[in-house]
Write a structure and sequence with these properties.
- The complex is a heterodimer of chains A (about 160) and B (about 575).
- With about 160 residues, chain A is an alpha+beta fold.
- Chain A folds into 2 domains: about 60 residues; about 80 residues, Glutaredoxin.
- A 5-stranded mixed beta sheet of chain A has the order 2-3-1-4-5, with helices on one face.
- Chain B has about 575 residues and is α/β, with parallel strands linked by helices.
- Chain B has 5 domains: about 90 residues, Glutaredoxin (3-Layer(aba) Sandwich), CATH 3.40.30; about 210 residues, 3-Layer(aba) Sandwich (Rossmann fold); about 80 residues, Ubiquitin-like (UB roll); about 90 residues, de novo design (two linked rop proteins), CATH 1.20.1440; about 55 residues, Alpha-Beta Plaits (2-Layer Sandwich).
- Chain B has a 5-stranded mixed beta sheet. In chain B, strands 2-1-3-4 form a 4-stranded mixed beta sheet, covered by helices on one side. A 4-stranded parallel beta sheet of chain B has the order 7-6-5-8, with helices on both faces.
- In chain B, a hairpin with a 3-residue loop joins strand 15 and strand 16.
- The longest helix of chain B has 18 residues.
- The mean pLDDT of chain B is about 90.
- Classes of the chains: A alpha+beta (about 160), B alpha/beta (about 575).
- Chains A and B meet through helix 2, helix 4 and helix 5 of A and strand 9, strand 13 and helix 15 of B.
């Protein structure tokens, strides 16, 4: 069982690398596809990729750690991004962030122990007209009030099963 | 029979709101005329028109009447609603301040349908360039138009292209910078999502002019819809033969490809962006050599912003003269601004260069939402500056904004009212730049951090008058010695707030007070014995247990222990905690 799973990860990495192998400047695009598939960049995948592309592991890690978008840890089931862009900041995003922290009892950059929620403070989601904004997975909530945070999170907590 | 909808709203901010009365009157008159099945009268929350009395907007015709008195309602019902004729004396022609060039198709064409764009004379600009103009002539056309880069610095577009054209290289590239990282700006996203073909056409023209055969659209990974639509637009363009080999029956070939950003603000800088497209860490390098000589993969490269490319396709279609007739002497055309913050009408506005700030903020934006006094507007994002209210009559152009110590930037325009603390805002922007500094050069990496420490000291109530000189000295060093615009621009918010709001800094340092109450460390919290209901909510919530007392004697805050977190102030239901 274990070995077939190993194989499939290897094949997946191979497939992604093969698709991009001949294109110049491909590393970031490959990492995007890997993160799209696994949700983050696991160490063993980075190792496989290093062998597959014949690029030192350090080069791959150099890129992963430079860019905010790439994650080295497994994300939560629901990823909460609280926008801290200027417009949101002026309209009280820090209070929203505090409310989420209080409710979930985690800090920014942390995941709840059950792996349900991960909280991040991000820079501008590009919908400043709706400030303050939070995003849960791909869903945007605009003009959020502090009092609504509990209600919004409750809907996700229900899906816990 | 189509239904006519009448939206009404009393737009006078002072006095009683007459919307409901007029709504009732309207409904009555409509019923009297027997039109109740065809006409629907609706009270609107906001029509985007302010201080023009009673306003009615008739849909689908789109007629707007302003300053309606009760006696006029009859006329509107009998003439416009019954006979479909306008009542000319009431018609409102807003001073139409906005001119749509970049966003000419946004909201009009279906962005996922190439035929829609073509029907709006799309791809006629590249056709004209290919058939009627040589690359030199096309560059000449851009020179006449006076178009300057919309990414912020305002470098003349034609000059960039002409340098890349004359540079030697076996391959040349064109890149579209869609890494819109400025917090508070989202015009590039709107163009990419609303009219991707106009950007693609602009890139084709650039490629033709400099002789490039390959191009990349670098888009933030945070904009999934923009990525999807641009990809669809590229596929459609390939499908119709507008990209690929022998475009439009000529020998012109071009391949375009989407590359994703990965959340690094510094990648908006052109040399950092090039490194990122190459798949490396996005760190800038010293210039010269400029990308027009040594760019992507070491080859001559033209990088322009999304908005610039959308302008290029307009210029080639409508001619340079049409474009140059809009704007000021040195800044031609229009600029899209993202108007956000404490403004009533937040959103994107496209105005001709030279429009005064006041028109944008008060006439288009409708002023401050809360009705409070407007304090300042911030332009140019984290590298820009703050412009105080007394300079709002300045026309918007590259030169004028620079004179005021701010700059155009990508076009964020953030309005602040008297509830905002400028020292806190300066700290916020600097914090952003410190976070996003790539760490390659010392002035930016160390200078930014040290300035942030000094600012924190000031907002914590430990500031000294000489701290201001320290800030100025570090700012000077960062401006002169940083490698790229991120470090050079990072001190701007601080320097401009120190220039225009010196009094606020003085208050923080000497009086240890924050006018807006944003710097909680400078606050003093006290329990008002007379309003206190002894509910103990503050006692329970205080994280450092500094509130003591009992039901008889009341509760007190131990000022020595208090960490000024403001928790007691927030939780008190009886306003019995005073903040000063």
């Amino acid at each position: 069982m274990e070995s077939t799973k190993e194989m499939s990860v290897k094949d997946q990495v191979k497939a992604i690398a093969g698709q991009w192998r001949d294109r110049e400047g491909n590393l970031i695009m490959i990492l995007h596809q890997i993160q799209g598939k696994f949700g983050y960049v696991p160490r063993e995948v980075a190792l496989l990729l290093s062998r597959e592309l014949d690029v030192p592991l350090a080069t791959i890690y150099e890129v992963i750690t430079f860019y905010n978008y790439f994650k080295l840890e497994k994300p939560g089931k629901y990823n909460i991004a609280v926008c801290m862009g200027t417009a949101c900041y002026l309209k009280g995003a820090s209070q929203i962030l505090d409310a989420v922290k209080d409710l979930l009892n985690i800090d920014e950059g942390e995941t709840t122990p059950d792996g349900m929620f991960r909280l991040d403070a991000v820079r501008c989601l590009g919908c400043c007209g709706l400030a303050p904004v939070i995003m849960i997975n791909d869903r945007i909530y605009g003009k959020v009030k502090k009092e609504q945070v509990m209600e919004i999170l409750a809907a996700y907590k229900k899906n816990k099963e | 029979m189509t239904t006519t909808v009448v939206l009404i709203r009393d737009t006078d901010s002072g006095g009683a709101d007459r919307t409901r009365d007029v709504h009732d009157l309207f409904t009555q008159k409509v019923r009297d005329a027997g039109l109740q099945n065809e006409v629907q009268v609706v009270r609107a929350a906001d029509l985007g028109i302010y201080n023009k009395g009673m306003v009615a907007k008739i849909l689908p015709q789109g007629i707007v009447y302003a300053g309606i008195a009760d006696a006029d309602v009859d006329d509107i019902v009998t003439t416009t609603l019954a006979q479909k004729m306008p009542v000319s004396r009431l018609v409102y022609c807003g001073a139409n301040e906005q001119v749509r060039i970049v966003m000419r198709n946004c909201g009009i064409v279906n962005p996922e349908c190439i035929e829609d764009y073509i029907a709006r004379k799309g791809y006629q600009g590249i056709k004209r360039a290919l058939y009627d103009l040589t690359p030199e002539k096309a560059i000449e056309e851009l020179k006449t138009s006076g178009l300057r880069g919309r990414g912020g610095a305002g470098y003349p577009t034609w000059l960039k292209w002409s340098l890349a054209r004359n540079a030697f290289g076996d391959r040349k590239f064109v890149i579209c910078n869609g890494d819109e990282g400025d917090p508070g700006a989202y015009m590039d996203r709107s163009v990419l999502e609303g009219d991707p073909h106009s950007v693609i056409e602009g890139m084709m023209i650039a490629a033709y002019c400099i002789g490039a055969t390959k191009g990349f659209l670098y888009i933030r990974a945070e904009y999934p819809l923009a990525i999807k639509r641009v990809q669809k637009a590229l596929d459609d363009a390939y499908g119709t033969g507008l990209l690929g080999k022998d475009i439009l029956g000529t020998s012109f070939c071009l391949d375009l490809e989407v590359r994703l950003g990965a959340g690094a603000f510094v990648c908006g800088e052109e040399t950092a962006l090039i490194a990122s497209v190459e798949g490396k860490r996005g760190t800038p390098r010293p210039r010269p050599p400029y990308p027009s000589d040594v760019g992507l993969f070491g080859k001559p490269t033209v990088i322009n912003n999304v908005e610039t490319f959308a302008n290029v396709s307009y210029i080639l279609l409508n001619g340079a003269k049409t474009f140059a007739s809009i704007g000021t002497d040195k800044s031609k055309g229009t600029k899209v601004f993202a108007l956000t913050g404490k403004i009533r009408n937040s959103g994107l506005v496209e105005i001709p260069m030279g429009t005064p700030l006041r028109v944008i903020i008060e006439d288009i934006g409708g002023g401050v939402a809360s009705g409070k006094k407007i304090l300042a507007v911030q332009t140019g994002g984290p590298s820009g500056g703050v412009i105080p209210e007394q300079h709002f009559d300045t026309p918007v152009s590259y030169e004028h904004l620079l004179e005021l110590g701010s700059f155009m930037g990508s076009g964020g325009m953030i309005v602040m009212d008297e509830d905002d603390c400028l020292v806190d805002i300066a700290k916020f922007y600097l914090g952003f730049c410190v976070d996003e500094s790539c760490g390659k050069c010392a002035p930016c990496r160390i200078g930014g951090f040290q300035m942030l420490k000094v600012l924190e000291k000031i907002t914590d109530g430990k500031g000294m008058p000489e701290d201001l000189d320290t800030l100025k000295r570090i700012a000077q060093a960062m401006r002169k010695a940083s490698l790229c615009a991120l470090g050079q621009g990072a001190p701007n918010p601080i320097i401009s707030t120190m220039k225009y709001f010196a009094e606020e800094y003085r208050q923080h340092i000497v009086d240890r007070k924050c006018r807006a109450g944003k710097c909680t460390r400078l606050m003093r919290f006290e329990i008002l014995d007379t309003s206190c209901k002894r509910c103990k909510l503050c006692v329970v919530n205080c994280p450092v247990h500094c509130i003591a007392g009992d039901r008889e004697k009341g509760y007190r805050i131990d000022q020595e222990k208090c960490i000024k977190c403001g928790r007691c102030f927030e939780v008190c239901k009886f306003e019995a905690v005073a903040r000063s």
